[in-house]
Amino acid sequence: MPPTVLPQNLKDWPTIKQAAQELKASVRTIWRHSKRGALEIRKRPVPSRKPINVCNPSDIDKLKPAPYIITQEAGDGSGGVEMMLPISKVSDALERIVSIFHERQNAVTVARPIERIWLTLEEARSYSGRSRSCLLRMCREGKLVAEKDGGWKIRRVSLEEFEG
């Protein structure tokens, strides 16, 4: 019996694992694409071994995500320049944007000076920079004007006078 002639050269076809890396997907996702008919998988014969599953490269190209087009406006009003970014770079860009947003959001939440007359112990601690135990000791010794109202409340003016 003569050897079977394959219509395509299967040596050029990538393995399932290579296809998964190229598509940035899992091997299981490659099998799912094959099951729904979006990707052709064949067996590449290997002498003295089990055949290897390989994927049709043209089907892999069809499954690749379309590039994302960004228009960058020129400062001179002459229009814009279009740039094509692959989806992987778009996700990197989005991650960078989110990290910048979080950095700026954290930078905005700086402690503002407290304007109230009475401060809780935690507010007095952040306001004065002294430790909690030091403030409690000064309250008990009477060095600060303080009241116990469900927790220690320290008068801001007495804290400022003591610091001055």
Low-pLDDT parts are: none
Count the beta strands: 7
Helix content: 40-55%
Strand content: 15-25%
Largest sheet: 3 strands, antiparallel
Q: What is the rounded distance between the termini?
A: 103 Å
Q: Count the helices. How many?
A: 7
The secondary-structure element order is HHEEHEEHEHHEEH
Q: Please state the structural category.
A: alpha+beta
User: Which strand order does the major sheet show?
Assistant: 5-7-6
Radius of gyration: 34 Å
Please state the overall shape, judged from the principal axes of the Cα atoms: elongated
Mean pLDDT: 80
Characterize the structure shown:
About 45% of the residues lie in helices and about 20% in strands. With about 160 residues, it is α+β, with helices and mostly antiparallel strands. Among the domains are: about 10-65; about 120-164. The protein has a 3-stranded antiparallel sheet with strand order 5-7-6. Strands 1-2 form a two-stranded antiparallel ribbon. Strand 3 (about 70-75) and strand 4 (about 80-85) form a beta hairpin. Helix 1 (about 15-25) packs across helix 2 (about 25-35). The model has no long low-confidence stretch (mean pLDDT about 80).
Please supply descriptive tags for the structure shown above.
alpha+beta, 164 residues, three-stranded antiparallel beta sheet
Quickly describe the structure.
This protein has 164 residues and is α+β, with helices and mostly antiparallel strands. The chain has helices at residues 16-23, 27-35, 57-63, 87-108, 121-128, 132-141, 156-163, and strands at residues 41-44, 52-55, 68-73, 80-85, 118-120, 146-148, 152-155. Helix 1 (16-23) crosses helix 2 (27-35).
